[in-house]
Every structure is written in structure tokens, then in C-alpha cells.
Amino acid sequence: MTDHLVDARVPRDLRAFIASLPKAELHVHHVGSASPRIVSELAARHPDSKVPTDPEALVDYFTFTDFAHFIEVYLSVVDLIRTPEDVRLLTFEVARDLARQQVRYAELTVTPFSSTRRGIDERAFMDAIEDARKAAEADFGTVLRWCFDIPGEAGLEAAEETTRLATDDRVRPEGLVSFGLGGPEIGVPRPQFKPYFDRAIAAGLRSVPHAGETTGPQTVWDALTELRAERIGHGTSSARDPKLLAHLAEHRIALEVCPTSNIATRAVRTLDEHPIKEFVEAGVLVTINSDDPPMFGTDLNNEYAVAARLLDLDERGLAELAKNGVEAAFLDEAGKARIKEEIDTFTSAWLAP
Ligand SMILES: [Zn+2]
Fold first, then answer.
1. In angstroms, what is the span from residue 233 Cα to ligand 1's centroid?
2. Which of 114, 179, 243, 329 is the most buried (most CB within 10 A)?
3. Distance CA 20, CA 351 (A)
4. Short-list 251, 317, 307, 246, CA closest to 282
5. What angle do CA 72, 156, 66 make, to 5 degrees?
6. Are 170 and 160 in contact (CB under 8 A)?
7. CA–centroid distance, residue 180 to ligand 1 (Å)
């Protein structure tokens, strides 16, 4: 599923600018970020798995026929994460891939339930991600923070377990900043998760559920009113509701837009039909993100290239888009100011005659 890669249509100098532009990544999944390089390392650790170890064979393995096939492949990668050392390796190597794209700050969506259910000790899991986070910051200068999300398809048992792991002071990791809800939306109404989000918010976490990716704008309203969302994962169908767009704009509730993902999962038919321009025109704070990048044959730099084409942006426009990502981050004001200044300094130097 790489036919939707469009960055070849974006001028080479603009792609070079994007590749060097300091950025924030707000919507990217932990396991979903496992590149063929990382998956081949994990598969080699577990030779009984059916996942290929050859990175070239993995590129074929990551070619999906439909959403159900995507879920099947995704779960086979989840099955490779069996020990705390697997967790640490995955996390640290994902950070390396982000750092190579000049990502200075990333909120990684982690689904601890998938690991604890598989028998990984919860404290060992937390130690593994925290150890990788600290090592990544020291080695690459990339700051990682966690969003713990409920896998919606796993029901309220998963919600309870995720909430406990996110709110129990004896377990929750230092880098945890937010609480999310992922998985399918159809048949998984958002309001049933309200009590869990209430507890997470009371424990100081920020609310950032997926909503309006594969269902209509009412799901986004539910995320706002029931789950008190401060950002929305995707929010694609918001474009069908002008009142909702006005609400998002007025309250500065950012949308985490992941264009290529929306095509890969068929949430949007073609990139040219993607509503990102309507979001921008309505004054919504739009951020660019990559979701499950290797699985969708993309990366964050490519998503910025897609956005440049869809929004007709030059270097300054792209720098503003990158600053949106920083603005919407769950990061303190000093941290935001530092990255924004770096973006401005880099852009001025790039454009200097
Ligand atoms: Zn997502």
C-alpha cells in the first residue's frame, strides 16, 4: 500500500526542508511505529513467530489488502513484544527513527493492556519504557512522553486495567501525560468510557481520544462532552459539521491529522478528498502526525510533504504547521517556546540568501 506516497510530487528542496525541520509528533502508536528494521530485530529474537526476519520480505508483509488484514498484521507484530527487553528495544528504536526525522518531542501512544494481558509484568513494562525514554533523550535529544490508551475493542475490562495502570502512583510512569482511546469506533460508543476518563483526568492526565475517524461528527461531540477531550485523534468527520468546526476552533482543540493513515484505512477515499483544508479554513488548530507510519508506508516527513501539497504551503507555512504541533503538545510553556524558537531559527537560516 505505497501507491499513495505522494512526496515525489513535492519539490525536492521543500522535501529537504521538511527533513531538517524540527518537529513534534503527537499521534503515533508505539507498536504501530515498529519499522521493518525493528520488526526484523524482534522477529529474530522469537524464531517461532511467522513474521519474516528479512527486512525486504517485511515490506511485502506490510502490504495490506484491507483493514482486517492490517489488524491481523498489527497483532502479529504485537505478538513479538513478549519480554520487557522487547519493549525496551522497540521503544528505543522507535525514538531513533523519530530523531532521524528531527522530531524533538513525541507523545507516543502506548497500549499497556496489550502487554500486561500477555503476561509481561507491569512494573517491568513501565521500567522498560522509562529506561528507553531516558536513554533516547540522552542519546538522541528527543523527548518522549506517553499517552496510555484503552484498546476500545477489548471492552471495559481493558478500560479498567488501563485506567489503573495510568492512575496508580506505584505503577504509572513518570513520562505519562495523557489518556486515550483507540481501536475501532463502529460499535464502540465513546460515552461508556466516561468514568475511566474522569478518573484519568482527576489524576492529572490530559484527554486525547480517537474520534471521528471512521464514524460521524457525533463521535467527536461525544469525545468533547463525555470524555472532555483536549485534542482529537483524527476527527476527520468533523468537516461535515460546521458547528463542530467552529467549536474546535474557538476552544483551540487541535485535530491530530494523519492523512496517509486515513487513506490506508479507507476513512477518506483519496488524499485530494482529505478535509484538512476545510479544517484550516475554519480556523481549527491542525497538527500533522503519522499514526502507524511503517504500516502505512509513510513517516512524519512524508505526512508534512502531503500536507504541503494539500495546503499549498511553502517553507514558512510548513514551519507554522510544525509550530502548531508544538503548541498542541502537552508540554510546559518553556519547552514549547524552546522548540518554536528552534523552528524559527532553522527556517530563517534555511531561507537566508
Ligand atoms: Zn491512532
1. 6
2. 179
3. 13
4. 246
5. 20
6. no
7. 10
Active-site hit among 41, 93, 107, 213: 213
Residue 23 host element (H or E): strand 23-29
Q: What is the 3-state secondary structure (H, E, C) of 113-152?
A: HHHHHCCCCHHHHHHHHHHHHHHHHHHHCCEEEEEEEEEH
CA of 67 relative to ligand 1 center, distance in Å: 14
CA of 294 to the centre of ligand 1 (A): 13
Q: What are the residue ranges in the chain where pLDDT is below 50?
A: 1-5
* Integer Rg of the chain from CA: 19
pTM here is 0.94
Q: How far is CA 269 from CA 121, 199, 236, in A?
A: 41, 37, 12
Distance 353 CA to ligand 1 centre (A): 40
User: Do 258 and 264 form a contact (C-beta atoms < 8 A)?
Assistant: no
Q: Quick one: pLDDT at residue 170?
A: 96
- Residue among 75, 51, 67 nearest 296 (CA): 67
Pick the closest to residue 255 from 239, 241, 271 (CA basis): 239
pLDDT in tens, 308-318: 999 999 999 99
Distance 46 CA to ligand 1 centre (A): 27
298 Cα–ligand 1 center, Å = 14
Identity of residue 46 = H
DSSP-derived secondary structure for 261-285: HHHHTTSSS-GGG-THHHHHHTT--
- Write out the three cell numbers for 165: 495502570
Residue 165 contacts by C-beta under 8 Å, 6 or more apart in sequence?
112, 113, 116, 122, 126, 148, 171, 172
Q: Looking at residue 56, what is its pLDDT?
A: 84
Q: Which residue has the cell 517485511?
A: 58
137 burial (CB, 10 Å; 0-12 / 13-18 / 19+) is middle
The reply to whether 213 belongs to the active site is yes
Q: Distance (Å, rounded) from C-alpha 278 to C-alpha 4? A: 21
What pLDDT was estimated at residue 1?
A: 36
CA distance 219 to 233: 11
- Quick one: how far is CA 123 from the chain centroid? 24
